[in-house]
């Protein structure tokens, strides 16, 4: 039999170049796994045909779970029998994507034994992904995983695996314990993750500060982003040291501040805290000299999603400031009241952001019991199409005229 | 017999945190980036933690993961992490370990970089490797683009942070809608309905309901239920193919790529921004997609030449104007660039603020 | 017999231009505003032209116009003009005429001002004086507001230009959608259909077609055609009343005013901007509308206290933020302030840029 | 009979205060005109009732014209017989609203003779308005007007009276002859003004520079706004003189420039002309020291309107730069190609801006034969819903695969 590389001349082009090659990763497993070899051959065919050779066909899963597995089948199973089934298993990552080597070695062993031995570290939503196994192996793999303390992630119309930035574990700017709340919420809502019961998918992402290192504002239905309410802390000495080292706070902070809230006169940093919009720029540029305040919490935003169907949405402010403290009851109550309204009013495959848009944010706020706040909008309405709740009836009119 | 375990959730992250992190948890004082790919975090306690960031193709075999474990055992007391962009981070309190560790990793072909003003790794999706609606291959595109941007990943060569993304269809599983540079696979034609025997393979009402634009209607062929698609209503999203295998959307001649720029997620300086179209269509040209790589290189070069410190691509374009950006890149502005969807009006220039 | 003249168009403006203008036409060099209400334009030739701006209620009797003619004959060689805000401008090359002319005008109760950083005259509409869809009276409101802002019209007392507008219904005949401060008459209930004998007074299909939201449907009463309005679809625009007298929309109890700020038309500094809602509803309280006058005064005072030179109200609010504007004015922020119409999404705060 | 003032106690409140009183204007005419007295009495009733007492009822006009008169009837003609008919006559103003006293006296005589003697100087669209006359007087008044050289303005689904700023007549910033083009267009399109044949109203407003003193960008379907293409002209000496007089160019220009395109180092003005967006701020602040360039013309924008039905629109850029020169053929050709497309595709009561919105600006441009230009948008599209004109057919596919 010929060497597998000769079967994939186009893909072999991707073994060249300096960036690590996914083809190399696949070939490494192809040597021992016919499944991977067939997937590679099928991929080569895609490179020739310029189209995918996967098809969708029915839901697969493990007992008692409504999600966590993405079923995938070759459209040419005769040609690529090893690729006939090639489902992915989504495994819930630990908060912050931290591992010890023992845990990873356990996972590798399981993935090698029951599947292709290929992974995505990690999927876009944050899961550990075992890229490819057969329907038969699903139950065994699930048992092996739970045995070692791992569980599945989400898919379908369910809560998806929450994720968070590295936060307090390694970052000076984490305004609350992102890892802990991410872990806590994941455990608290196991049922919502594993048994799809929502109108559509729901994603939670947690960033410790407005830099938003998990892109929560763009990719989560419910975005928790750290912020502070009190004054920025400044240290003129440290700034003087930066300047001595050749840094220029006028260029790196003053001129970049979106609201012109910071001044530097060569000696002192002055912050107009009333106008500071917590954009992080001066802090990012001078971590030793400028630090967030100490009255910390998070802004909660709602509704981000990719463009299908109504166009992409970013999350927008729902609660300008909330303290984020164990046991996170306030967050959970908010989540549940949102899910209730979504349950009552959401259409099938309607993301929460689309519901807010369709219903109107003012109406939505009323339904979840939050008072309108001017910080929720960039500006008040520009059109006069106000539907007033309050007005007089004709009978009042009659009375009034008497 | 063992009780089947379910709903145990993810393992506790605490067991995966190295001791220095447990001790300085929430009490970090500041950080520095001593060289590309290396971060130093200093605790209020004075403790120091170095992290080495390694670029990853994300699609990893268990062999590579085990190799990473070896490195972590050797240099990092057995701890490591992954980033929100699929890079690997090796953390150590032993400054002396840094150089040997980097040498070893680089020796095995693992690039160290991706910090501060370098090109980021590319957030991407499944493509032909695993998805049925893909209009292109994600991993292949990423490989070609990162080969080209390799030196920009390993050096702080850019004016500011530059975040890239690839997605293989309009579902945009990732960050395409909010990245500095994004490559998006697109279909340009409706699925081709395989009308015969359709009802045997798909549940007709479910498929009709799956279409976001209501473009699918029931039809009858040889007395049996089948489907038809109203071409002018279809926006090529592929949702119907997910529901029914008789509606394949892949189309070698009409699938291809589009290129987008100027999105961002961070609230740093400016507010988050959506990505904007710059190249409406490039045909698929595997295995190296040279036209796509060229376009990305062009954009990166313009950014390098014209961006000011800290400016993301969006910030730079704000300053120089879109007209100049198109001029500098040489991309053609066409009617496709003019929004005609729901909120289009808001993108029209309703002012006389013009640059000549 | 005379042939009936038609389509002769407007008279040639050239005959109405004073000689100094004909000579310096297109060749003006610069201008100054020596005092409120007086402009000096200097030609490249060195010629000088003074213009005196006089506030007008716009609704003028021929007697007043003839009085203006007398003034123009006496001081301005028989020429005068009106402005795009309905003020009157008396132009003269005789500097010595300025003071006596102003004295005479002011003596007769005509205010001189409205230039540069003064409150503008109010662009307005017909109201109860002449329009059938009006939810309020425009001229009355203007009178009350300008009585209040009189000193701001006659002095350069503001940080920048301040343009006011009043419209008596959603048709907004004027500049309400793009003014620094705008007062808008609003209905809050659908027209009350006078169902009986309706078809005798109105052409049913035309009326149905007149409704922008499709809220009107045909109905039958006593075997005759009539109309009905779907309340939840109606946005109280009054278009149907224009078509059919049996659908009166005026409703003393539910009609009233709303107040808007932060619009502008000029491209000066910032791009043109739409006006934004600040007070959703104030009941009609003629003849002096004290609540409206108070609200306007409040806004003007905040502007005076917090605006920086050249800043229009919109520019000031950009700088201090809407939250602070509501705080300073004391207006309540309600759900009505949150857009829920077509482009609403674009007004949501999709960032963490917040002021606390 | 009682003194009229006692009939209108509420309105009499509006005789008080320092601002000129419209009630005084009306009362002046009421003394001699029962029509005005009745209108005043009806207005007093509105002040009591808090509602209008006008009703609409059928179209009135003059022979051969489809517009120019707004019919108005009292809803209580028995109570206010003088207000039974009270139509307005819209008279086309001269460009720039300049008059000599003779012309005004003529108008006053006509208005006094055939109507209420009340006017609006001017209506919001720019017309001279005779506020109130009866149906019988319409033909006589029209003859009297044309006799003296005046004609009607527009109403209904027609071209409305174009208007323009004072421009070159008295302003140093007029980038072209706004009065002349306004006059020329008005005369050229008499038929379009007087005989409604459009899907809806169409307004043209002409401003000599981006300050836009006739609010063209907010209130005209077709906005002509002066601009220049070459470099701003600066005069350092004049600036030095301003500074000597206490002015501060840093505050009045440098910090207010939207693109930071102007610098002042105490001696020299420096303009980054490539980045200047022609916002006028530095020019407005220092007319003697900073002046527009000399390669002058206009930006043409399309589509402004008030909010009914789809929300208010501003005009948006259609032609970034056009020379505006007699006989204005380029402007006229553009206008006509727009009207043609509107005629073919506009729905009844659909303003041109709404059509552009519905059709998509790209499509509209194609239809009127203008090439897309990036200056027409604030930014390129953000969503991926592109409908491609070009693609391969299945047959091509078959061929290609052979
Ligand atoms: C490790 C990681 C978090 C994690 O939990 O995995 C991380 C870590 C840090 N981020 Fe981040 N960011 C990480 C993804 C992101 C993302 C999300 C993304 O890349 O998809 C964003 C938002 C992206 C966007 O706007 O589109 C992000 C926006 C920032 C910013 C704001 C950048 C800006 O100017 O716009 C900062 C501040 C800075 O760099 O000055 C920041 C700063 C930092 C700091 C300096 C925080 C700290 O003090 O430790 C960390 C090192 C930065 C570096 O790479 O130089 N981080 N950071 C992520 C590394 C991804 C990678 O492998 O490349
Ligand atoms: C695996 C993953 C891409 C990857 O390579 O990492 C993925 C893969 C798929 N996504 Fe996704 N999405 C993945 C993250 C995302 C993200 C990013 C995120 O979560 O941050 C998005 C954009 C954010 C969002 O949720 O809007 C995303 C937006 C979509 C959409 C569009 C949803 C929308 O409302 O706009 C669809 C379409 C759908 O749900 O029918 C979709 C559908 C799909 C499906 C299930 C298509 C299908 O019907 O079969 C893909 C399965 C591919 C496969 O072969 O496994 N995927 N998808 C990501 C999940 C891995 C994980 O669990 O960690
Ligand atoms: C006479 C008039 C034009 C006309 O043909 O009638 C006019 C005349 C001048 N305008 Fe104007 N503008 C006139 C209405 C406008 C309008 C329209 C309006 O008021 O409805 C605008 C746009 C309004 C808006 O943005 O909402 C307008 C925006 C400007 C600006 C930009 C102001 C700004 O900073 O936003 C300037 C520049 C300046 O004032 O520095 C300007 C400047 C000028 C100058 C200085 C031009 C000149 O060199 O002669 C004139 C004297 C200004 C003054 O009043 O101090 N003119 N000007 C209008 C007087 C109206 C009135 O009676 O109050
Ligand atoms: C007289 C005038 C108000 C004034 O007091 O000055 C006026 C009065 C009327 N307008 Fe207007 N509009 C007048 C300028 C405007 C303007 C301002 C402008 O032209 O710059 C606008 C906003 C700009 C625009 O065109 O969008 C305006 C937007 C409307 C609309 C809404 C149109 C829309 O598409 O949004 C209507 C409703 C309609 O057309 O059915 C309307 C309808 C009306 C009617 C004809 C209502 C009706 O159906 O009877 C009003 C007759 C009132 C009356 O008793 O005379 N009027 N109308 C203005 C015309 C005077 C003149 O010819 O000089
Ligand atoms: S989001 Fe903020 S807290 Fe979290 S890692 Fe990024 S910079 Fe640190
Ligand atoms: S955090 Fe941002 S807004 Fe606040 S002072 Fe610093 S740069 Fe300015
Ligand atoms: S972007 Fe589209 S093709 Fe790619 S993984 Fe997501 S759903 Fe599949
Ligand atoms: S591709 Fe999308 S829009 Fe087109 S028919 Fe299928 S589901 Fe509908
Ligand atoms: S704003 Fe409304 S009520 Fe006032 S004049 Fe115009 S159409 Fe009539
Ligand atoms: S008021 Fe306007 S929206 Fe309401 S029924 Fe009449 S035409 Fe329709
Ligand atoms: S628009 Fe410009 S040219 Fe016309 S009057 Fe105003 S400032 Fe002068
Ligand atoms: S005209 Fe405006 S944009 Fe141009 S330099 Fe002057 S202030 Fe800046």
TrEMBL record, chains A, D:
An example of a GO molecular function for this protein is: heme binding
Q: Does the keyword Metal-binding apply?
A: yes
Per the record, its GO cellular-component terms are: sulfite reductase complex (NADPH)
Q: Which residues cross the membrane?
A: none
Superkingdom of the source species: Bacteria
The record, for NCBIfam families, names:
dsrA (TIGR02064)
Write the protein's name: Sulfite reductase, dissimilatory-type subunit alpha
State the organism named in the record: Candidatus Lambdaproteobacteria bacterium RIFOXYD2_FULL_50_16
Automatic annotation (TrEMBL), chains B, C:
Q: Which InterPro entries match?
A: 4Fe4S_Fe-S-bd (IPR017896), 4Fe4S_Fe_S_CS (IPR017900), DsrB (IPR011808), NiRdtase/SiRdtase_haem-b_fer (IPR005117), Nit/Sulf_reduc_fer-like_dom_sf (IPR036136), NO2/SO3_Rdtase_4Fe4S_dom (IPR006067), NO2/SO3_Rdtase_4Fe4S_prot (IPR045169), NO2/SO3_Rdtase_4Fe4S_sf (IPR045854)
Q: Which GO terms describe its molecular function?
A: 4 iron, 4 sulfur cluster binding; dissimilatory sulfite reductase (NADH) activity; electron transfer activity; heme binding; metal ion binding; sulfite reductase (ferredoxin) activity; sulfite reductase activity
Q: Does the keyword Iron apply?
A: yes
Q: Which GO terms describe its cellular component?
A: sulfite reductase complex (NADPH)
Please give a single GO biological process term from the UniProt record. Answer: sulfate assimilation
Gene3D superfamilies found in the cross-reference section: 3.30.70.20, 3.30.70.3340, Sulfite Reductase Hemoprotein, domain 1
Q: Which Pfam families match?
A: Fer4, NIR_SIR, NIR_SIR_ferr
TM regions (residue ranges): none
Which cofactors are named for this entry? [4Fe-4S] cluster; siroheme
Tell me where in this chain the 4Fe-4S ferredoxin-type domain is found: 225-255
Listed name of the protein: Sulfite reductase, dissimilatory-type beta subunit
Domain of life, per lineage = Bacteria
Tell me which PANTHER family the record gives: SULFITE REDUCTASE [NADPH] SUBUNIT BETA, SULFITE REDUCTASE [NADPH] SUBUNIT BETA-RELATED
Q: Which UniProt keywords apply?
A: 4Fe-4S, Iron, Iron-sulfur, Metal-binding, Oxidoreductase
């Amino acid at each position: 039999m010929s060497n597998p590389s000769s079967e994939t001349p186009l893909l072999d082009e991707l073994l060249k170049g300096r960036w690590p090659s996914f083809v190399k990763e696949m070939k490494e497993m192809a040597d021992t796994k016919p499944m991977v070899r067939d997937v590679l051959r099928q991929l080569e065919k895609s490179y020739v045909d310029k189209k995918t050779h996967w098809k969708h066909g029915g839901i697969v899963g493990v007992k008692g779970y409504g999600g966590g597995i993405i079923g995938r089948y070759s459209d040419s199973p005769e040609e690529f029998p090893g690729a006939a089934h090639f489902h992915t298993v989504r495994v819930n990552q630990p908060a912050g994507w931290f591992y010890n080597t023992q845990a990873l070695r356990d996972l590798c062993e399981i993935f090698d034994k029951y599947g292709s031995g290929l992974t995505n570290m990690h999927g876009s939503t944050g899961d550990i992904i075992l890229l490819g196994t057969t329907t038969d192996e699903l139950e065994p793999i699930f048992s092996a995983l739970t045995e070692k303390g791992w569980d599945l992630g989400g898919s379908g119309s369910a809560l998806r695996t929450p994720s968070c930035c590295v936060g307090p574990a390694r970052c000076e700017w984490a305004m609350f314990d992102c890892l802990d709340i991410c872990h806590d919420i994941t455990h608290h809502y196991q049922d919502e993750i594993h048994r799809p019961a929502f109108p559509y998918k729901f994603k939670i992402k947690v960033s410790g500060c407005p830099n938003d290192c998990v892109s929560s504002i763009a990719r989560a239905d419910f975005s928790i982003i750290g912020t502070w309410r009190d004054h920025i802390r400044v240290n003129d000495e440290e700034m003087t040291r930066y300047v001595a080292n050749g840094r220029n706070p006028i260029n790196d902070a003053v001129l970049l501040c979106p609201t012109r809230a910071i001044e530097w006169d060569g000696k002192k940093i002055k912050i107009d805290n009333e106008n500071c919009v917590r954009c992080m720029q001066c802090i990012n540029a001078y971590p030793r000299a400028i630090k967030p305040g100490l009255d910390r919490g998070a802004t909660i935003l709602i509704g981000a999603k990719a463009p299908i169907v109504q166009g992409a949405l970013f999350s927008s402010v729902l609660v300008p400031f909330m303290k984020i403290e164990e046991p996170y009851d306030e967050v959970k109550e908010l989540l549940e009241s949102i899910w209730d309204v979504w349950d009552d009013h959401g259409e099938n495959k309607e993301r929460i952001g689309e519901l807010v848009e369709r219903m109107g944010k003012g109406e939505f706020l009323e339904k979840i019991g939050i008072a309108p706040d001017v910080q929720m909008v960039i500006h008040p309405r520009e059109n006069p199409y106000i539907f007033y709740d309050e007005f007089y009836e004709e009978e009042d009119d009659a009375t009034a005229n008497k | 017999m063992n009780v089947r375990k379910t709903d145990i959730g993810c393992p506790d992250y605490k067991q995966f945190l190295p001791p220095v992190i447990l001790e300085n948890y929430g009490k970090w004082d500041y950080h520095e980036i001593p060289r590309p790919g290396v971060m130093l975090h200093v605790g209020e306690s004075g403790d120091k933690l170095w992290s080495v960031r390694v670029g990853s193709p994300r699609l990893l075999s268990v062999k590579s993961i085990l190799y990473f474990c070896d490195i972590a055992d050797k240099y990092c007391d057995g701890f490591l992490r992954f980033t929100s962009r699929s890079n690997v981070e090796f953390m150590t309190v032993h400054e002396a370990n840094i150089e040997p560790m980097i040498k070893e990793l680089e020796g095995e072909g693992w690039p160290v970089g991706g910090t501060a003003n370098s090109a980021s790794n590319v957030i991407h999706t499944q493509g032909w490797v695993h998805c049925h609606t893909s209009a292109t291959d994600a991993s292949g595109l990423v490989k070609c683009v990162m080969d080209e941007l390799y030196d920009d990943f390993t050096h702080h060569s850019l004016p500011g942070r530059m975040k890239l993304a690839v997605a293989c269809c309009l579902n945009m599983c990732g960050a395409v809608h909010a990245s500095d540079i994004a490559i998006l696979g697109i279909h340009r034609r409706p699925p081709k309905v395989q009308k015969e025997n359709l009802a045997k393979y798909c549940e007709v009402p479910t498929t009709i309901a799956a279409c976001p634009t209501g473009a699918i209607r029931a039809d009858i062929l040889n007395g049996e239920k089948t489907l038809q698609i109203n071409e002018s209503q279809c926006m090529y999203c592929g949702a119907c193919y997910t529901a029914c295998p008789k509606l394949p959307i892949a189309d070698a001649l009409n699938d291809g790529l589009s290129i987008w720029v100027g999105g961002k997620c961070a609230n740093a300086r400016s507010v988050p921004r959506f990505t904007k179209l710059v190249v409406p269509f490039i045909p698929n040209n595997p295995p190296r997609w040279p036209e796509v790589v060229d376009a990305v290189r062009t954009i990166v070069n313009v950014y390098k030449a014209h961006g000011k410190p800290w400016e993301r691509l969006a910030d730079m374009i704000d300053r120089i104007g879109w007209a100049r950006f198109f001029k500098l890149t040489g991309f053609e502005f066409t009617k496709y660039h003019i929004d005609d969807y729901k909120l289009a009006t808001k993108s029209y220039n309703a002012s006389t603020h013009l640059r000549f």
